[in-house]
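Consider this one:
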Amino acid sequence: MLVGALAPAQAADPGAATAPAAGTALPPVSPTPQSLHRAGSDAVVTSRVLVVADERTDPAARARLIEELTAHGADEVDVVAPGALPPAAAGLLTVRLGPASRPDIAGALGDTAVPDHAEGYALRVFAGKPYAQIALGGTDAAGQFYAVQTLRQLFVPADDGWKVAGAQASDQPSMPLRGTIEGFYGLPWTHAERLDQMDFYGDVKANTYVYAPKDDPYHRGKWREPYPADKLAELGELVERATANHVRFTFAVSPGESICYSDPAHRKDLKAKLQALYDLGARAFSIPLDDISYTRWNCTGDRAAFGEPGRRAAAEAQVDLLNDVQRTFIATHEGARPLQMVPTEYGDLTDTAYKQTMRASLDPAVVVMWTGTDVVPPKITNKDADAVSTLFGRKVFVWDNYPVNDFGNTSGRLLLAPYDKREAGLSDHISGVVANPMNQPYASKVAVFGAADFAWNDRAYSAAASWPRAVSYLAGGDRAATDALLVFADLEHMAPTFGATPWQPQAPELARRTAAFWQSWDAGDRTEAVKALRAHASAVEQAPATIRGGAVEKGFTVDATPWLDATQLWGRAMVTMLDALAARQAGDEETADRLLTESESLQGQARAVRVDPPRNTWGAAQAKVGDGVLDAFLVQAGVRLRLWDVAGGGGNLAPEGTATASSVEQNLDRLAPRHVNDGLTGTRWASGYSDDEWVQVELAAPAVVAAVTLAWETACATRYEIHTSADGTNWTTAATRAPDGCDTDVVRITADEPVRYVRMQGLERRTTWGYSIYEMGVYGAPVA
């Protein structure tokens, strides 16, 4: 709707007095508003500012507005009532904050459209006479708060202070539920970290936080027991901080491991647990029933009540519990929002007796959460969302398992790629999105920033645009720190799934640069190739120091400590390797050899960096940095130096060869030997379940081999050997290895006789599974 302007005697249309500043772009605003454009010249922030507010002004919005004005040049901020502007108001910046329907705000907004939508707002900056003024009108209290969050991003530096960009906005969220679910396994966040997260969610206009840490004993294992007094006090403080940021603290209790659905005492204990948080101010509640068995009951009474365990019986028991909580607790508690739940079948599109029972019997008010077409889905489409909505008989609420890093394929990883591959238009098909973050809360902000951006305005969302803004937020807007974070985040870009293929690649920018390097190098433009890549290698080496320089949030530097340590070493190894290549190209073989040795030593130090003590369930692990890209480049460069005088250089010969193996796990084609040399880090070979399995590559032609690389999956070897052969019959043991983890191994070969076959011969498995390798590289040079 449009809120009409005041009568001409009271106020004129403020937009008519000034023309847009020619060629001046507005600062970027995140989340991306539905409508934001320039409406005139910038307004100067005067040393004294008037804020016009009354009892209908949201206190949190008013407090944040005063904070931002003070931080951007206002020495004094006076709060006055509408109609009570002092005679000295002329010449002072005046900011009107409150409901968009308040007459003075409506007049100042002029023709700015005010959304008729929960959490919507309108904003207008007017730099004309008799004084500059800003109107911030919300359709509700949250809308007022979000108007201030947009204004916060419109301050621009001036020669002698600050201005506010002359903007006009009409904005509202596309999805009603936006935020995070602390639902990971492993060390939960600390109280201080959670408080910081609430402030962050307010900044990015996220309105939902679901408290569901798997390893909080009172959330899951001890769900019937009341929280201790000190923990309850912390939760109360967290509810207050969330409320101050217009975040709905959603309290989750996960009773599925031990509940007796038919036992009235269990239901009484569950409701008492919810009541304790209601008394602290929580008004949103969730009962997750994920990661539990529906093939057994926890009590004999459930067999009598619901029959033999199974999908339909489990759904009937769960529906009976959920409907009871919705109807006798939620519906009877003032202000309580509809109950949320996570089904046991939360990550697929298969119609089953479980889902049929849910859609037929679950109270329509209950909100169902869904993780996508897999636990970690590579994409979520509108078609998928429609399909699952049909299966559950309602729009679902997406629990998005990105950037969570609590599963095996994320071992040793920070996940800093942008929020991506969720289809525009999902707001028409789902009720919202919450991202499940990492055990590292500050590092999680990169992806959560994007998820909030997407949920606010999915049709305008661009991962490419949002990602650097997220990084800039962490860097406090500092340009050098932002650039350093982007370099670092590129090296932590891998986004695995539970399957073999990651849904976002590792180090795409570095991969592009190293590919360009080898193309130029092989074309003979070697000096320029080294110069171009060395600049980026130096940026990699220097990024950790810049990130730790003070501009970036301290919490992020703590979260990322081992990865920053490793990055500095990897960057130095890369710079040194490039200098070795340059020295060899200049004919200085002695210096090249010395630098090569130094680079290999640095690589060893980088591989030795461990995430320890870890916050994650995967335990102490190598801090992975640009793996499969940075380390592969260094191996290839080292081989080129060692085989400098061999015709053809030292490229990876494996992709042109033919892979065979002693066995394939369950004879699955997706684990066939050909995947070990297909050049794709997301596919893999896996063997049968015995120690003496092997995989080999028959090269396209005999070659002198200088190095073999093995990118292990989590099913790796405790001990193995590298065998070589000229004829496939007579074999030589070229190396024996006993690695201390499942990482990428680089095995250097010193023999100078040409071979045709290279084999990984297993000696001892690390797990009860077989051996599994993503990629096997064979670096060397063919011989005539």
